[in-house]
Amino acid sequence: MSGTSADGIDACLVEISGNGIHTKTNVLAFETYPYDKTTRTAILDTCNPETGTVDKVCQLNFHLGKLFANAAKSIANKAQIAIHDIDLIGSHGQTIYHIPNPATIKKTEARGQKSEARGNNFKGETWDLPHIRSTLQIGEPSVIAQETGVTTVADFRPRDMAAGGQGAPLVPYVDFILFRDKERGRALQNIGGIANVTILPKNCGINGVIAFDTGPGNMIIDRITELVTNNTHHFDEGGKLAERGRIHDSLLAALLAHPYLSKPPPKTTGREEFGKSFADNLYKDAIHSGIKDMDILATVTAFTAHSIADSYKHWILPNHQMSEIIISGGGSHNDTLIKFLRQYLEPTIQIHSINKFGISPNTKEALAFAILANETISGNPNNIPIATGASEAVVMGKIIPGKL
Questions:
Q1: What distance in Å separates the CA atoms of residue 185 and residue 343, rounded to the nearest whole number?
Q2: Among 91, 215, 246, 399, which residue's CB has the most CB atoms within a 10 Å radius?
Q3: Percentage helix, strand, coil for the chain under 3-state DSSP, each rounded to 5
Q4: For position 266, what pLDDT does the model report?
Q5: Residue 308: how many CB atoms within 10 A of its CB?
Q6: What is the CATH number of domain 172-348?
Q7: What pLDDT is attached to residue 109?
Q8: Bridge partners, 13 (sequence order)
Q9: Please, what is the average pLDDT of the chain?
Q10: Predicted confidence band of residue 375 (pLDDT cuts 50, 70, 90)
Q11: What's the N-to-C CA distance of the chain in angstroms?
């Protein structure tokens, strides 16, 4: 798994028995393999429509495939298991662009620009594409299968989008399998680059699951941290920097007016809405208004916490009783963020790290795609239409056979 933070590859080695609601898991090893600076820069450049040219996408697809294969071999080696004894690899890939709610795409080529394809000058032309939901994850699975010799399942999101869904969130299917409870209503809150929640009302069936992206997670916090530290820190470890600042009320109010937050579920978002451009513009405007660096960081940390809490208040708590929230993802390590979240939520709701359930906060998403891959080869539909907006349940994931 490589998420929207694009900081590295999470590799989880897990023993799985059964499938569907009978799935049992035993995590044998986990490791994060950080991207080197050149690779991370290439990923972020490729995610940007202004710099992500087709040749970069093409080459990065194969480069990441090799890195994912290396991660699979490394995690197997860490657990002292031969790679040829691994039955299956599930790979989410690296999201480059995600368009769940498209507008018509317009492209006008500059008048008089030379077209190498045509070999002459032309006066300019405009092309329009219809409203098409689409997504692109790279990290070529054929390379993974070839390098490891192991059957690989990848590229999960497109099948859900082909069925009219938003291609996200996908982890709720796994949350239902692992965390449903007859007596307790639970929220599984992941705080990665983007924050997303799965609601499991007590004794719910698969059609009772509610899930959506609540909004920004670490993405804005990480970028503001880079800006206020002159790029000496890429994330606010433990929330210690934000703890030094004060929340700027008017800036927080402006951020909370973002239209995504008032949209009802199902909904999904990403770097396209809350990425580098958003954070850079926010920082520039805040500095121009005289807001101090650490106050900006404290405010965007509060923004993430507030957007999560408000999502519960608007879309969940009026209809469902929640006993506990189980936190995972990198944001679970940000003590200031979690402190704000506790302040903004009702005190009767318990907040736990997923550690309480024997799963590391950083492990969960990689574990989820191992389980989703197991569902794919078992022939089980592994999306939740009520969460993604798809017209039907489908089997997601493309299967690339390993070496015979």
A1: 20
A2: 91
A3: 45, 20, 35
A4: 87
A5: 27
A6: 3.30.420.40
A7: 42
A8: 29
A9: 92
A10: very high
A11: 26
